[in-house]
Amino acid sequence: MCGNYEQLIALLQGMDSVLLAFSGGVDSALLLRALSDSGVKAAAITVVSPLVPAKEHQYACEFARQWNVAHHCISVDELENDEVRANPVDRCYHCKSLRLARLAEYARQQNYAVIIDGTNADDAHDYRPGLRASAEYGVQSPLRELGFDKRTVREISKMLELPTWNKPSFPCLATRIPFGTPLTHEELKRVENAEEVVAQYGFRELRVRSIGDTARIEIRTDALPALIAPEVREPIVAALQALGYRFVTVDLNGLRSGSMNPEKPERDQAVILSADAGCCKHKHAI
After folding, report:
1. 197 neighbors 240 (Cβ within 8 angstroms)
2. What percent of the chain has a predicted confidence (pLDDT) above 70?
């Protein structure tokens, strides 16, 4: 067995009992598998929220059923909170505080000694105001404590043949909307639907940033030729305009996680994807 994974198991076995904040992403999925192998008293909680697409909740539930760890879902509507709804630059702090309050309550009621999450070593170098909430609630992050970055997590997951080893990261839907723009259920659902439209053409890693009446698509730069091929571009434009967007653009910088974070200057090199615009003569396969 991989030495890194053995270190993770040993760390978990040093905990009396564990409640895992489980999203179904690559990081928390590895922790769920490790908890199952560790024999530690544990449970996993998935938060059902309007900030996360329904398909992500479903995936988390399907994955959790494979392992010997109790799994439960709790509903949290963060938009009931004025501070989250206002979408300030520290929105993630307020959002995570709401979620952790519910997890802490569950942990007290069910006698779980420790709450853990899937924060990894890379997260310390990103804009993560939610980490302050984790510190306030005493959440432990085994992956970060062991120095595991995202690459290490994926390598261990692949060794364990977890289906999540190459699962794209999926930040919450609120990250698609500029800070300061109030969040609504309707706008979050529009973003979810817009990304479903683009994803059905075979693009696995993508974001649709919703900026007023403009949808700005971000995908990997090597997939840009496929996106602007007429047989792909035209139905995407039509579908996104049907969702209420007047302009459908593509960011020539490609997919950039956290591209709307305040400390990262925006260099918007956007091309309007007109439904009747021309394209190059070459055929592009997805």
Report:
1. yes
2. 90
SS3 217: strand
* CA-closest candidate to residue 204, choices 229, 227, 172, 237: 227
- Judge contact between 206 and 255, C-beta under 8 A: yes
Sheet of 270-272: strand order equals 206-211, 214-219, 247-251, 270-272
User: Bridge-partner residues for 77, per DSSP?
Assistant: none
Q: Could you report how far apart the first and last alpha carbons of the chain are, in Å?
A: 37
Distances (CA, A) of 114 to 95, 103, 187: 20, 10, 35
Contact 199, 170 (CB under 8 A): no
pTM across the whole model: 0.87
Q: What is the pLDDT confidence band of residue 259, given thresholds at 50, 70 and 90? A: low
Domain positions in the chain are 3-159, 173-272
Q: Domain 3-159 is classified in which CATH homologous superfamily?
A: HUPs (3.40.50.620)
Rg (CA), the chain: 20
